[in-house]
Amino acid sequence: MPFARLKDRALVSVSGPDAEHFLQNILTTDLDTLKPGEAKPGALLSPQGKILFDFLISRAGDNGFQLESRADIADDFVRRLMLYRLRTKADIAKQDQVLVTVAWGDDSTASVSDSTALADTRFRNVAVRRTYGGEARDSDDPGAWLALRIGNGIAESGSDYQLGDAFPHDVLLDETGGVGFKKGCYIGQEVVSRMQHRGTTRRRVLIASADSPLPVSGTELTVAGRPVGTLGSVGGQTGLAIARIDRVKAAVDAGEAIMAGDVSVTLAIPAWAKFTFPEGAVSAEEA
């Protein structure tokens, strides 16, 4: 069973009698739907609806939660949560030097020895388990983990988009269970709900592929010199991109090449996703 150690991750713990109420009121994730043994995606947004912090959240004990984030933003994440805590009875702290391991396979084989392994609910076509703590194991395969994430269209901040620059819909949090549309208010909720109900989302995560190796992450995607998106994570001839799906559709309909530098690419919607390319998309020149 393949697995990988994620050395760039950290855990933030939030515990106490008011922890769930506190988090439910500020995060995009609907904690009413978060089951024990699950790690669900989510975000803390700006009032304008942009992602300030992304994470995976899971339950820890009777009144606690673990929020797995990028290690380089964990301290800032803790400080932001502390700002919102006010008089809430909740303890917030970063857990130092916690080993994060992911393992994957089909439903019959995707398990790890640690009984506390969590199901990463972002993945629909393969079972992925995350383990916090335990002993390091040899022969992990970070390249295979990157390929798995790319193949399933799972974007993460830093490698695929910059914090403060994307809405939840842009990175498919609306389709991976990272946004609770039936919960009450949370920071940025008005903007996110308006995008959902109006169906105005135009930037989406797509899977990029080419006949030759893709250029580096951050390379602009263009059609006849006009920008349509940006490459994110890259692994050989495949990668992730966040692109304007209306401009991509217009280019495909017009038979125009989509370029990443000097490499021609094909952009596809992740197989599990429900969104589609828009009908009657404007031309790339008009967009």
Report on this model:
This protein is of the alpha+beta class and 287 residues long. It is built from five helices and 15 strands. The strands form two sheets. Strands 1-7-9-8-3-4-5-2-6 form a nine-stranded mixed sheet, with helices on both faces. It has a six-stranded antiparallel barrel with strand order 10-13-12-11-14-15. β11 and β12 form a beta hairpin.
List the helices and strands and how they pair.
Blueprint: E1 3-6, E2 9-15, H1 19-24, E3 38-45, E4 51-59, E5 64-70, H2 74-85, E6 91-95, E7 100-105, E8 118-120, E9 127-132, H3 142-151, H4 189-198, E10 203-209, E11 220-223, E12 226-235, E13 238-244, H5 245-254, E14 258-260, E15 263-268
Parallel strand pairs: 3-8
Antiparallel strand pairs: 1-7, 2-5, 2-6, 3-4, 4-5, 7-9, 8-9, 10-13, 10-15, 11-12, 11-14, 12-13, 14-15
Order of helices and strands: EEHEEEHEEEEHHEEEEHEE
Classification by helices and strands: alpha+beta
Strand fraction: 25-35%
Gyration radius from CA atoms, angstroms: 19 Å
Averaging pLDDT over every residue, what do you get? 92
- Helix share bin: 10-25%
Number of strands: 15
Contiguous uncertain segments of 5+ residues: 108-113, 281-287
Count up the helices. 5
C-alpha end-to-end distance: 46 Å
Strand order of the largest sheet: 1-7-9-8-3-4-5-2-6
Shape: globular
Main pleated-sheet profile: 9 strands, mixed
